[in-house]
Amino acid sequence: MTSKAAISSGWKPASSGRLRQNRAFWLAAMVAVLGVLVAASLLIGTRAVTLADVTGALAGRSETIGEAVVTMRIPRTALALLAGVALGLSGALMQGMTRNPLADPGIFGVNMGASLAVVIGVVWFNIASSNAYIWSAIFGAGVTAVFVYTIGSLGRGGATPLKLTLAGAATSIAFASLVIAVVLPRGDIAGGIRSWQIGGVGGATFERILPVLPFLAVGLVLALVSARKLNAMALGDELAAGLGENVAIGRAVAALSAVLLCGAITAVCGPIGFVGLVVPHVCRLLIGVDHRWLLPFSALSGAALLLASDIVGRVAARPGEVDVGIVTALVGGPFFIWIVRRQKVREL
User: Fold this and answer.
1) What CATH number labels 18-347?
2) What is the C-alpha to C-alpha distance for residues 159 and 216, in angstroms, rounded to an integer?
């Protein structure tokens, strides 16, 4: 059966046997690519290390400078993997529940809403703990998601993709300005917040990563649970309801999952844009529109993209680094323009 989502994405139906073979091939390829990128992330940086240093660090030794360097890169690699999984999944969820090819946590302003909430918490309420950061970011992401969807739903036609995109872009710009306004009087912390606002995984530690794991785990479970409902909603709300799906609950579960994922990871990494936009589109071209496959592939592909971007950022400006948020913006900006031209704004 060919859905509206399949038609709109340009995906052509294939035999079930061929589709299974394609999915198995791309799954194996993605796992292999991830393995190579993880190894590269541990080996490549401002200081070159050897495989012996990597094995020594993984064994718990730090007898050489190389092993000490790898020990610092292990949590950084783990954070890049988690951030890529969270952002790739949240983008696929947002595109699925809104049937909007331009949906992305950054474009919809959700990341910036999370950032604004964290900045307000730091500047006005002096929050300092990891849990306070995470809860503030999730609260900000949730409020922003509701706000953008409400604004995009006003007027004739309800929540159309174009209105949602415009509402999200306007909200993101407004919140970015508010972040500057809140931080401006606090010169003592302005530098750190500006650096965090760029988005990056440098300086990662397991102490920063561990508090966010329960939130990411809940978001991942909710995402996988919502896969079947997203498949039904791709046919249209009326047809999905006719098939016995509760559209409101399905959309709420998917939205909660996306908010948990992007809000929690923004608290740790800062707002990293365009991963959730690029990854689901590429995955649809490779494995089709079935969300039972699309969501796991988006998670793996998001991890691969963020790891690759972090590696590029390390070698592009040696002996310094380019934050991963800048690299993903350089990749995602042209991709965003291509999607708009391909979809034609009047058809959104």
Assistant:
1) 1.10.3470.10
2) 28
